[in-house]
Amino acid sequence: MLPLLAMLKKRVRQEMVNKKENVWDFPRPAICEPFSGSLEVVVSGRVIAKTDRGFRSLETSHPPSYYIPPDDIEMADLLYNQRVTLCEWKGKASYFNFKLGDRSIADIAWTYTDPTPTFRKIKNYLSFYASKVDACYVNGEKVMAQDGDFYGGWITKHLVGPFKGGQGTTGW
């Protein structure tokens, strides 16, 4: 019986890996959910964030933004800056710069220190712009960055668009 159970578990895992998600099926207003997988962020050849305790934010037309607990981030190289933005779903976002030796990256990540009630579970968690780091990984897969300079979604091969963020999509 054990080999059959192991085979069924392997099949279910494979089906989950092959599952496609269409961003147009994501909800509006946005939601936040636990992510049951691994997340990793690499800068200057160093893993600066790695977790299997992340969350993801889902919103119609957007690739997910992933949020990593500060305990799983090398916070020493991240410094709060003065940038602040407002998300209609999550609240006021604060931003971080990265500084390591000669390398500086402005607005590499953001956080919500006082999120709306729906997003309380990501309070003080950080999300990174895939476009500003060397690499971001979801379950070992290197992601593509969402187009544009405002949204920070991570695009995997299992995600179907089109995605908001690029030129001409601000009215979507």
Give your account of this protein's structure:
By secondary structure, the chain is mostly beta strands. 10% of the residues lie in helices and 40% in strands. The protein contains one helix and 15 strands; from the N terminus they run αβββββββββββββββ. 31% of the residues are buried.
List keywords for this structure.
172 residues; mainly beta; 4-stranded antiparallel sheet
- What is the strand content? 35-45%
Our count of helices gives 1
- What structural class do the secondary elements suggest? mainly beta
Question: Could you spell the SSE succession in H and E letters?
Answer: HEEEEEEEEEEEEEEE
Q: What's the quick description here?
A:
The chain is built from 1 helix and 15 strands, in the order H-E-E-E-E-E-E-E-E-E-E-E-E-E-E-E. It has one helix at residues 2-18, and strands at residues 21-22, 31-34, 39-43, 46-51, 55-58, 65-67, 78-87, 91-100, 103-111, 126-128, 135-138, 141-142, 144-145, 154-155, 159-160.
What topology does this entry show?
Layout: H1 2-18, E1 21-22, E2 31-34, E3 39-43, E4 46-51, E5 55-58, E6 65-67, E7 78-87, E8 91-100, E9 103-111, E10 126-128, E11 135-138, E12 141-142, E13 144-145, E14 154-155, E15 159-160
Parallel strand pairs: 1-15
Antiparallel strand pairs: 2-5, 3-4, 3-11, 5-6, 7-8, 8-9, 9-10, 11-12, 13-14
